[in-house]
Amino acid sequence: MEHKRIAILLACIWTIVAILPLFFGSTNFIMHILIMCLIWSVVASCWDLIMGFAGIFSFGQVAFFVIGAYSSAIVSARFGIPPVFAVFIAGGIAAVFGVLVGLPCLKLKGAYIALVTFAVHMILEPVLKGDIGRALGTGGSRGILTIAPMNIFGYTFSSSNPVPYFYLILLVAIICSAIIFLVIKSHWGTAFLALKDSEEFATCLGVSAFKYKLMVFALTSFLTGMIGGFYAHYVSMLSTRMLGIDLFVTLMVILVIGGVGKFPGAIVGAFITIALNEMLSPIGAYRPIILGAMVVVLVLVLPDGIVGLVEKIFSKKKHRFTH
Amino acid sequence: MIKVEGLNAYYGDFHVLKDVCLKVGKGQVVVMLGPNGHGKSTLLKSVCGLVDRVTGSILYNDENIAGLKAEKLVNQGITYIAENRELFGEMTVLENLKLGAYSRSARPFEKKNLEKVFSLFPRLKDRRPQLASTLSGGEARMLAIARGLMSNASFLAIDEPSLGLQPNLRDEVANIIRQINSQGMTILVVEQNIPQIIELADTIYVLEEGQISFEGSKEDALSNDHLKEIFLGM
Amino acid sequence: MLIEIIDVLISGLINGSVYALMAVGLTLIYGVSKAFNFAYGSFYSMGGYIAFLLFGTALINHYLLVFCLAIPLLLLFGFFIEKLLVAPLRKRDDWEIKVMMITLGLALFLDNSFQVVFGSRMKSLPPLLEGTFEAGEFILPYQDVAIFILSIGGILLFRWFLNNTRTGMSVRAVAQNPAGAQIVGIPKEFVFAATFAISTVMVGMGGILLAQKYFITPTGGWDILVKAWVITAFGGMGSIKGSLYAAFIVGLLEAFVGWYFGMTWTLIALFAVLLTTLAVRPQGLMGKWG
Questions:
Q1: Which residues in chain C are closer than 8 Å to B50, comparing Cβ atoms?
Q2: Which pLDDT value is given to residue C289?
Q3: Which of A60, A161, A225, B113 has its CA 20 to 30 A from that of A90?
């Protein structure tokens, strides 16, 4: 999709989201869901950036999110750093891990990268629960039970009054999406298109796969880690349950619905998926069955997600006008 | 034997062949010339069922085979020999040849065709247990042709057999083609670097920008200035 | 102490043999069609549940019957899943990601269906053979021997199939050169579906064989998927020999690390070995690129 169209779509999405509190502001429950939508939209957009856009099959997104969440909680508790700074430090820590994970992946292909990054995800749980984790302050298998709430210029955001928190996270999400948009628009964008098409050829032309891939790892893990920090200070408690398969699958469903590699599909996908999740929760155990079936059907019928469908509709209209 | 009419071929949205018409009579040798990248391989592949999207008609003994897949067509005696050879590198020469006889119609004749192929290509007989990836360029080319012959084909579409071959091996290729043609094989070949093959041609076609720009005998071709350009410009 | 070590060794070998069967299945699909089946773990569980169901009907009380019924079932299931879910995606761009996603959706669907139908409590299967072999302090259940023999038997059968049957040769051909296979008249799409079906049988059998020792749960398959994945990556994706060696190495490593350091360290140890191997040889022990 052309960059101008992406920008317009982004603006529309954010405008709509921004006025949602006008309708739902009084219902804390819905506001909570919307905040989670925003948080997952950032994580999913980062995953879309590294997987759909840069073509790197990284499965470590959830791991970086959890690393960021735990880091921010621990840093603010142990070193007394105010949460508003802790989240950025958390992003930095996640970014360091991102680079550490990315380095061995540079020489690997496709499914191998998925395995290595998924390995990080799988190892994280025993590490956080075990002795190393407890020494760092992760609370072992109990997790962290109290985390300082976000506090900016003396105003404490509490989860009992979610509307201000909503706008804070919205701001963060908008900034993150702007950063991602700039990356796609920039020469990084062209570099990745070239690398995805034919890596050998692009490297001959001087496109440094090494540099770009590492930077994508660093950026996506930074943003994901940072939003993980915001999550921690919002929900005030953390446990390793986040590393279960549910979150991973939810993020994948978001990408399927939104469209892989079709930014800002991940944002649209996040809202739709979380809303769907909530709507389906009364049926309890049948929910994941329906979600699974939905994913299967969607991948077959709407391979490029909703954004892809919208693209197709618009390009058909364009054709009609030019004939 | 083969009559192509109004053939259009596409790779995705890319329109490669535009309303191509072509005739190859039984037992003939027809040569296809033209600049690179203009669709010659696509044309051969289309006839052999290796292109996904084709429209138009390809009559094989009066039956329209356009759009049928290679698995069916190999069984009916139509075989493509790729310019990239596409051999099975980790299998032996013998295994490659045996796989050439994979189709149901070719299996009963596997032994007979092996003998025939070994008499045409004695060097391959020596190299039977050798892995295909260890063959030299010339031997690999011979193996590709031999494998094609194992399919018991009556029509061969040969794509640039001289590609990557030293000049002295080109004579060998020309000999092989003459021999199999004399045994009754109908051949459509893309080749401009082997004059003996062009000598052999019953008809010459030129494909430019996905369309036939010339059709005629070799005498017509030699007296055509535009074609001389193509010959000399190679 | 020696008895303990031998016990661990045998346990590692037996697990390794079943891992080998399942890893070969996974590497087969990847080698032939470059697809990654995220529902592989669910197919493992499915094997166990099919056996459980069959044993539940009063008529069937012998493993031989179970195998005779389960194998064709798994074969057909795998074949149709490939045709319906994977084959249509091949023409699209980014199809590898899409295959991963659709199989992930399938896994979600299957795992939770198992949960709803069978409940989340563990199910078990009767042992293949009763009784144990005893020599002093050394105890070896016949069941374990049977598992080992069946797994190795399955692998050998598969090897025979690959090298000595026409379909087997066509599978090798498609794996080595899909374009060449098409030229020669091999029905590529059929081979893709057939190998997917065969791999389903392999992992389903693995599920049946291991279910008698370790129970069947709706989500137990994920561990298996990760292990099979690690093994195939370690051995080299697409290399059957590599998967074989890797499976036994992993089985033994897992047994010894679990015994000496505790089970929680096994996964970390596995990944550590995998990562170091990939750092030195990015294509795995015996993998080839292309």
A1: 182-183
A2: 44
A3: A161
Q: What is the CA radius of gyration of chain C?
A: 19
∠ CA C145-C149-C150, nearest 5°, is 115
Distance CA B201, CA B188 (A): 9
Q: Report, as an integer, the average pLDDT of C201-205.
A: 92
The 3-state DSSP class for residue B108 equals helix
Among B71, B81, B90, beta carbon nearest to C187: B71
Residue C264 has a pLDDT of 74
Mean pLDDT along residues C29-47:
90
Q: Please report where in the chains the tokens 């360029």 appear, as a residue.
A: B137
A303 close contact with C: CB closer than 8 A: yes
Looking at residue B19, the DSSP 8-state letter turns out to be: E
Element (H or E) spanning B158, and its range?
strand B155-159
User: What's the whole-number average pLDDT of chain A?
Assistant: 81
What is the total count of domains within chain C? 1
pTM equals 0.86
Q: What is the pLDDT of residue A154?
A: 64
Interface present between A and C (3 or more CB pairs within 8 Å): yes
**Is C173 part of a structural domain of the chain?**
yes
Residue B14, class by beta-carbon neighbours within 10 Å (0-12 exposed, 13-18 middle, 19+ buried)? exposed
> Model confidence over A65-124: pLDDT tens digits?
999 998 888 888 888 777 788 888 999 999 999 998 888 887 777 778 888 888 888 888
For residue C85, list chain A residues with Cβ-Cβ distance below 8 A.
296, 300
| DSSP count for chain B of H helices, then E strands | 10, 10
Total domain count, chain B: 1
Contacts of residue B3, Cβ cutoff 8 Å, sequence gap at least 6: B22, B23, B24, B57, B58, B59
pLDDT tens digits, A257-278: 888 887 788 888 998 888 888 8
Tell me, what DSSP letter sits at residue C214? S
Q: Which domain holds residue B168?
A: 2-232
Q: Is A171 on the interface with C (CB under 8 A)?
A: no
* Contact (Cβ atoms closer than 8 angstroms) between residue A126 and residue C267: yes
Task: Please give the pLDDT value at position A204.
Answer: 66
- Output the pLDDT for position A47: 92
Which residues form the domain of C54? 20-220
CA–CA min distance C274, chain B (Å): 27
Q: Return the residue matching tokens 């819905």.
A: A30
Q: What DSSP assignment string belongs to A164-188? A: HHHHHHHHHHHHHHHHHHHHHHSHH
Tokens 């440094």 belong to residue: A208
Q: At what angle do helices C221-235 and C2-33 cross, to 10 degrees?
A: 80
Confidence at residue C20, expressed as pLDDT on a 0 to 100 scale = 92
Instruction: Provide CB contacts within 8 A for C283, sequence distance 6+.
Output: C236, C237, C289
Q: Which CATH number goes with the domain that contains B19?
A: 3.40.50.300
Contact B86 C185 (CB under 8 A): no
**Residue (of C24, C15, C58) closest to C195 by Cα position:** C24
Structure tokens at A267: 């944002």
Q: How large is the average pLDDT for residues C259-286?
A: 80
Q: b/e per residue, A282-305, with b = 16+ CB within 10 A?
A: eeeeebbbebbbbbbebbbebbbb
